[in-house]
Amino acid sequence: LVVAGGSWAGWYWSNHSTTATVSTSTTPTTQSKTTTPETRPTTPTVQGMQLDTSKSYGNKYADGVLPVGDGKYVTTGPKQGYVYACSQYAQNLASTNGGAMTRGPWFSSDGKTWNITKKVNVLGTVYWHGNMTDTVSGSTRTIVSNDLPINDPTGTFPIQSSDPAYQYDRNPNTITAQSYTFSLPANPTYGTQPNCIGGTVGIMTTGVEIFSAFDAGGRDAGAWEVQDGCQGHPQEQGAYHYHTLSSCINNRSVHDVIGFALDGFPITGPNVGTNNILTSSDLDECHGIVSQITLDGKSVTMYHYVMTEDFPYSVSCYRGTAIQPPGLQAQQQAQQGGQIPNRQQKPPQQ
Predict the structure, then answer these.
(1) Nearest-angstrom CA–CA distance, 44 and 75
(2) Any alpha helices (H) in the chain, and if so which ranges?
(3) Do residues 131 and 170 touch, judged by C-beta distance below 8 A?
(4) pTM greater than the 0.85 cutoff
(5) d(CA 315, CA 307)
(6) Residue 117 to residues 19, 70, 213: CA-CA distances in angstroms?
(7) CB within 8 A of 196, min separation 6: which ones?
């Protein structure tokens, strides 16, 4: 066991199995409502596809076999099951030779599916001094993070030549702390005309960034790239991130917030109930739905994104207006149109 970066963080997110306290403050608000005894207040209609709580969505991918999403992006408008990529980001995806270059044995023979239960993980158990705060004041939610997982381990990076993962993915990058401030709208507005995305799409309550579904070459990152046991890995500047739903996020309920997109809308898990799990086909073109969730300790009905096991995994377009991602990744977004850096050597073909 390796402990990196000093002492333990002083708090944890409440959706983990360990008892935790979140550092969150909210500006007090005063609400007044007057109704006559015989009049019941009406609930305003919330825009967006609605979750059907009476429906059994099933457990479509119970066997772990998932479709491969290589090249599934569009640039002229959103499409369900695809990523709506901003034009420069799409150009980079089409022209960059990066990411893992060898199919592992978890792919089917025709390359159209992959089995998550057979995929290898990067070895190692390294704990970090993760730190994150989430503060709501007025119309702004401010999330400050060093981009290190708060109470989950990472694998050992760079990937060692003795690691079985090395023959498929030779990620040479080292995880390093970042200094990120996300100033998000606390009350995001649902837009009927979705907006395109770049490489970074949000921040999870584990303190870790979430990137789009693709590696640098426009391939399905979940299928191709080899991550650690929490489905994370570092990019060129050392920023640790996910592309897919981390198995270390224990609370996967559709009613509980596990992250925030860059437009301020919450991100939840896919579980409606036991063996009742949402997939991409159950969501709108931005990978979202309207349901009752718990946000900042209150029960609200609103639009939110859903992380699923299948491609495109998370936010595939923005319903609101997104901020520019902070830090080094923001510089890359501005200079390279959202490109995830070309950070890997091409391993020999097996």
Answers:
(1) 33
(2) 87-95, 221-224, 327-336
(3) no
(4) no
(5) 8
(6) 29, 20, 19
(7) 75, 84, 85, 86, 87, 89, 317, 318
Sequential pLDDT tens for the chain (350 residues): 444 443 333 333 333 333 333 333 333 333 333 333 443 334 457 899 999 999 999 999 999 999 999 999 999 999 999 999 999 999 999 887 777 778 999 999 999 999 999 999 999 999 999 999 999 999 999 999 999 999 999 999 999 999 999 999 999 999 999 999 999 999 999 999 999 999 999 999 999 999 999 999 899 999 999 999 999 999 999 999 999 999 999 999 999 999 999 999 999 999 999 999 999 999 999 999 999 999 999 999 999 999 999 999 999 999 999 999 996 444 454 333 333 333 333 333 32
Structure tokens at 164: 């079985």
Tally of CA atoms within 13 A in the half-sphere of 197 that contains its CB? 31
CA atoms lying within 13 Å on the CB side of residue 207: 28
* Cα–Cα distance measured from residue 45 to residue 68, given in angstroms and rounded to the nearest whole number: 36
Backbone φ, ψ for residue 46 (5° rounding): -100, 130
